[in-house]
Amino acid sequence: MNAAAQTLVVTLDRLAHGRTGDKGNRANISVIAWREEFWPVLVAQLTEDRVAQLLAYRQPSRVQLYLLPQLQSMNFVIDDVLDGGVNNALNLDSHGKSFSFMLMGLPMEIPSSWKDRLVGPP
Amino acid sequence: MFEFQNPTQPLRIGCGAGFSGDRTDAAGPVVQDLMEGLQTVGGSAVLIFETLAERTLALAQLARVANPLAGYEPLLLDYVRPVLANCLTHGIRIVSNFGAANPLAAAQALAELARSLNLRVPRIAVVSGDDVRAHPEVLALAQSLPGPLVSANAYLGAQAIAKALNAGADIVVCGRVADPALTLGPALAHFAWALDDWDALAGATMAGHLLECGAQVTGGYYADPGFKDLPDLAHVGFPIARMEADGSCTLTKPQGTGGRIDSHTVKEQLLYEIDNPAAYITPDVVADITAARVTELGSDSVRLSGVKGHPRPAHLKVNVCHDNGWFAEGEISYAGPRAEGRARLAADILRARLPLLSLRVDWIGVSSIWADDAGAVLSALPDAGHTDVRLRIAATHQDKAVAEQLLREVNALYTCGPAGGGGVRTGLRPRLALVSCLLPQASVPSHFEMWLPDTMGVSR
Questions:
Q1: Tens digits of per-residue pLDDT, A70-89?
Q2: Domains parsed from chain B with CATH numbers
Q3: Residue A5 has pLDDT above 90, yes or no
Q4: Which chain A residues in 6-65 lie under 8 Å from chain B, judged by CB atoms?
Q5: What angle is formed at CA A48 by the lines to CA A70 and CA A23, rounded to 5 degrees?
Q6: What are the angstrom distances between the C-alpha of B440 and each of B125, B144, B159, B194, B328?
Q7: Which of A109, B83, B343, B383 lies 20 to 30 Å (CA to CA) from residue B249?
Q8: Domain residue ranges of chain A, discontinuous segments joined by +
């Protein structure tokens, strides 16, 4: 059996869920593991750099990741990404409420053996 | 006689609204649940309404300028009317920031509501001190703002709320207070915690954080069919926290309501609008959730414990709002063959016609929110032949007349633009900008006064 057959690529929403909050022109996006065993994969693959790259076109000035292993949760804090925020943005989603779902579409590589433990329709 | 302090008895705090504009039928089941708790296990109960987002207070201040009797939460009476009789009869205290920019007028409206319902006139405490427009440092800041100052409000802490409850207030009306203070205030009064019992203060603060957005901890802003399924979200129940003497809490919701409380709904709300999880800064305490535990005790019952606290900051956060020109937007739809091409042509026409405005363009049906203001994302997309596209454009300008040109040009697309454009909608509104600053806590004293119906004023 080769290495490729032992892993599987799925979107993040099969492993975790999350929510966006806002304060002024700063957004925070939580990413919360559905199961304890998913946590190390989240930490390994969902990095500050990866999120910064995803949002680069919105020109955030800083992406900071805080890890909460006790809660198997990550908190990404992203500065100057809301086009000015709720008072200033021309964007319809001035709160950035929809941002968590941008993360949820990211591909993640997991062991094939997790196939039956994933959340969502197969 | 009315003292709230009762540390050996249970304290339950329910949330009736999580933002200005929240449902007005949510508090009813919460109050029923609180009443049943009082009958079965006794103790004390509090109903909170959190109705003041970052910009809500500036809008309320504008309303007060237009009408001196306005400036409090517009839905105030709709929130309180359905539950006031039960709250007064069963001693369920009400604590809220629904006073917004005019807590005194809110108190008067509540007293009149009680009278109109043939209830006794409630003891209503009005918390003040948050309006810092006259503070020397704010006056200095106002000089440097690009537009006239509209509002300047400090986020007050929980102490005035606690004192008002211990003085016998049935209802505590606040303007700007830190949202979790609506929960911490009652807990402080009930448990008589020392003001430097940091872990207890931090625990109740995070309990307040879980409660303050209403349904966001019981399944609202959460459901995602196939991935995050919930029962009966149309009748989602609002949260109730049973507070413990060490600051920990257990969240539940009223029997028979929809939604769910489990470890996942709680974790999502725990991290909502959090920056550094080791330092959630409030006026009363700096909370640290890095060692917090979220434990499912049973169906719709989750315990939050292990929150740590650090000494309160020396400064209060102040939100300063000022006028900042005008916000204009307009929309028009194209459908059928070549709809996307016609929408693109319409956008090009508007750009040519409105050289004074920097336009944000969205093609609803293709991309409505994730693109960038500069338009790089959309201009990189080839015409994919979408057959139902709603063009949206938005811009801001300091000069109202210039902003209005956007509305006129979108409307003119009916006859001067591409074929088959329909459904024009336009809107123009004043724009507020928000600047935050810090003021020393000692320079922003807060206090409460009992509202006296006879004098139509307040007194100690």
A1: 999 999 999 999 887 777 78
A2: 11-132+155-313 (no CATH), 320-436 (3.30.70.1150)
A3: no
A4: 13, 17-19, 21-24, 26, 28, 30, 32, 34, 57-59
A5: 80
A6: 25, 20, 16, 22, 38
A7: B83
A8: 16-106
Question: Which pLDDT belongs to residue A1?
Answer: 44
Looking at the predicted structure, is the pLDDT value of residue B332 above 80? yes
Amino acid found at B181: A
Own/partner contacts of A1-9, CB < 8 Å, gap of 24 or more, are: A5/A112, A6/A111, A6/A112, A7/A109, A7/A110, A7/A111, A7/A112, A8/A109, A8/A110, A8/A111, A8/A112, A8/A114, A8/A115, A9/A107, A9/A108, A9/A109, A9/A110
Give the side-chain half-sphere CA count within 13 A for B27: 30
Q: What is the pTM of this model?
A: 0.96
Contact map slice: B 305-344 vs A, CB within 8 A: 306, 321, 324, 327
Nearest 5 degrees, angle CA A57-CA A60-CA A65? 120
Angle at B306 between CA A103 and CA A119, to 5 degrees: 30
Neighbouring residues of B286: CB distance < 8 A, sequence distance ≥ 6? B202, B279, B280, B309, B310, B311, B312, B313
Residue indicated by tokens 């790089």: B376
